Amino acid sequence: LRMAERGRYKTKQQGLILDCLKKQKLRFLTVEQFLKCLTDENVMVGYTTVYRFLERMAEEGKVMKLPTEDGAKIRYCFANEDDLSKPGKLVCLGCGRFIPLECSKMQDFLEHIYEEHGFEADQQHTILYGYCECCKNRGPGSKGGLGKN
């Protein structure tokens, strides 16, 4: 077998990693965080195995892949095709939650960007970062919102 073909076979470990991905649906996690989830379920899988599987899933369009805020690590998120195809995506910087955005104002915003700034945004990759309702209201040091008090 050639190396490229070997990685395409489904193994028990890949099935366990996929189960973990599905349980963490709509949350962005690093490889290390996925490893912790697997370890918590008494599943022992190596870092390289998890990394390669997540990378393959990202290549196949089944997982979203984003850098962390500081760019030091990559995070992965499992979502169904319908969620991934939404015109916008919200990602919480606090908890890593992914919120598919389908909003009538999004198209107006994208048109404004194009008309006023001469920039055509790629809707498939439009991601807005911020803090979800839970994370922004966590008390001292929490991130303030634009909403009314």
Strand and helix layout:
Layout: H1 3-6, H2 12-23, E1 29-30, H3 31-40, H4 47-59, E2 63-67, E3 74-78, H5 81-84, E4 88-92, E5 98-101, H6 104-117, E6 127-130, H7 133-136
Key structural traits:
alpha+beta, 3-stranded antiparallel β-sheet, 3-stranded mixed β-sheet, 7 helices
Low-pLDDT ranges: 1-7
Backbone structural class: alpha+beta
What's the gyration radius in Å? 18 Å
Largest sheet: 3 strands, antiparallel
Helical content band? 40-55%
Order of helices and strands: HHEHHEEHEEHEH
Biggest sheet, spatial arrangement of strands: 1-3-2
Indicate the proportion of strand residues: 15-25%
Distance between the termini: 63 Å
Shape: elongated
> What integer is the average pLDDT?
81
The number of helical segments is: 7
Number of strand elements: 6
Describe it.
Helix content is 41%, strand content 17%. It is an alpha+beta fold. A hairpin with a 5-residue loop joins strand 4 (88-92) and strand 5 (98-101). Helix 3 packs across helix 4 (47-59). The radius of gyration is 18 Å and the shape is elongated. 15% of the residues are buried.
Summed up, what is this model?
This protein has 149 residues and is α+β, with helices and mostly antiparallel strands.
